[in-house]
Write a structure and sequence with these properties.
The protein is an all-alpha fold. Helices cover 78% and strands 1% of the residues. The chain has a domain of 193 residues: MetI-like (MetI-like fold).
Length: 329
C-alpha cells in the first residue's frame, strides 16, 4: 500500500505541473492582452489611451516579458502562497477571490455529498428491485434531471420556495450576515441558503450516478459468486452488501474525482441566476478582460482540484478493492 501511495503522489505532482503549464498557455492564447482590452474599453467610453501610456502599463504589469518568464514568475508566486495581481480588479488575486473561493468549495462539496447520499441508495434499490414501480419512478426522474438545464430548475424551484414559504432563496447569506464575522448564527444562515443550489447542482450528477450504480450492480448480481453465496444460505442483504455493492461502486468512486470540478464550472450560470457569491462571476469577468492571473488562478484551482480528487479516489479504490493495488504491485 505504501508503494501504491508513493506512486500516486509522484503522478499527482507531475500532473499538477502539467496543468499549470497548460493553464498558462490557454490564458495566453487569445490575441492581445489585458492592456489591449483596456484600451478598447476606454475608446468605447470616449477616452483615448496613448501608445506610450499603453507601453508603460505593459511594462508595469510585466506583459512585455517572454511567456516563459511570465510563467516562471507566476509559479514562483503561487509556490510562495501568492496568486498574483489582478489587472481588472487592481488588487491581489487572493483578495479578489477571498470568501468567494470558500463559498464555491462549500457549494461543490455539499453537492458531491448530496449526490452520494441520494444516488447510491436509489441505485442499489433500482438494481435489487429491477422493473418495480420504484425502479421506473427513479428512471423517469433520472432522465428528467439529466434533460432539464440547471438554470431552469433554479428558476422554478426558487419561485416555488418563495411562493410557498416566502423565503427568497438567492445569495448564500442574508443581508445581515454577508459581512458579519463567523458565528453559529451565520453558519446556520449559510446552511439554509446552501440547500437549494446544492440540490440544483447535484441533480444531474445524482441522475448519472443512479444509472451507473444500477447498471454495475445488476452486472455484479448476475455473476457466479452471487449464485454460490445464495446456495450457501446467506441472506439477500448479506449477499448484496458484502461484495456486489463494493465492486459496483468502483466506477462511482472514480467518477467522483471529476464531479467536483464539473460542479464548480457548472455553478457559473447558477451564480448569475441565484446571485451566488462564487468564483464563477470573477472568472467570467477575468476572461472578458484577459486578466491572465485571475483567470489562470481559477483554471489552475479547477485542474488541481481534479488531480486531488483523482488521488483521493485512487486511494479509496485501493482500500475498497484490494485487487487494484495488488495488480500494480
Amino acid at each position: 500500500m505504501l508503494a501504491f501511495f508513493v506512486r500516486r503522489v509522484i503522478y499527482a505532482i507531475i500532473a499538477m505541473w502539467a496543468v499549470s503549464v497548460i493553464s498558462f498557455v490557454i490564458i495566453n492564447l487569445p490575441a492581445g492582452d489585458f492592456v489591449t482590452t483596456y484600451i478598447a474599453t476606454q475608446l468605447a467610453t470616449g477616452n483615448l489611451i496613448l501608445e506610450d501610456e499603453a507601453e508603460s502599463l505593459r511594462e508595469f504589469y510585466g506583459l512585455n516579458d517572454p511567456v516563459y518568464v511570465q510563467y516562471a514568475k507566476w509559479m514562483t508566486r503561487i509556490l510562495q502562497g501568492q496568486l498574483g495581481f489582478s489587472f481588472e480588479f487592481e488588487a491581489p488575486v487572493r483578495t479578489v477571490l477571498g470568501m468567494n473561493l470558500l463559498n464555491t468549495v462549500l457549494l461543490g462539496a455539499g453537492a458531491v455529498l448530496f449526490i452520494w447520499t441520494v444516488a447510491i441508495p436509489i441505485g442499489i434499490y433500482s438494481a435489487v428491485k429491477q422493473y418495480s414501480p420504484g425502479d421506473y419512478i427513479a428512471t423517469f426522474f433520472g432522465f428528467l434531471g439529466l434533460g432539464i438545464p440547471d438554470f431552469l430548475i433554479a428558476l422554478v424551484m426558487a419561485w416555488v420556495i418563495f411562493d410557498t414559504t416566502g423565503f427568497l432563496a438567492t445569495d448564500l447569506y442574508s443581508a445581515g450576515y454577508r459581512t458579519a464575522p463567523w458565528s453559529l448564527a451565520k453558519i446556520w444562515d449559510l446552511a439554509k441558503h446552501l440547500v437549494l443550489p446544492v440540490v440544483i447542482l447535484g441533480t444531474a450528477g445524482t441522475a448519472t450516478l443512479v444509472r451507473i450504480t444500477r447498471a454495475n450492480l445488476l452486472d455484479e448480481l448476475k455473476k457466479p459468486y452471487v449464485t454460490t453465496a445464495r446456495a450457501k444460505g446467506l441472506t439477500e442483504w448479506q449477499i448484496i452488501m458484502k461484495y456486489p455493492v463494493r465492486y459496483a461502486l468502483n466506477p462511482v468512486i472514480s467518477l467522483t474525482a471529476y464531479i467536483l470540478p464539473f460542479i464548480i464550472s457548472g455553478s457559473v450560470v447558477l451564480s448569475y441566476v441565484l446571485d451566488l457569491p462564487t468564483i464563477g462571476r470573477d472568472f467570467l469577468r477575468a476572461l472578458t478582460a484577459q486578466d491572465i492571473y485571475l483567470s489562470g488562478a481559477v483554471i489552475l484551482f479547477s485542474g488541481w482540484l481534479t488531480i486531488i480528487g483523482t488521488f483521493g479516489s485512487d486511494l479509496l479504490l485501493a482500500w475498497v478493492d484490494p485487487r487494484i493495488r495488488l495488480e500494480e504491485d
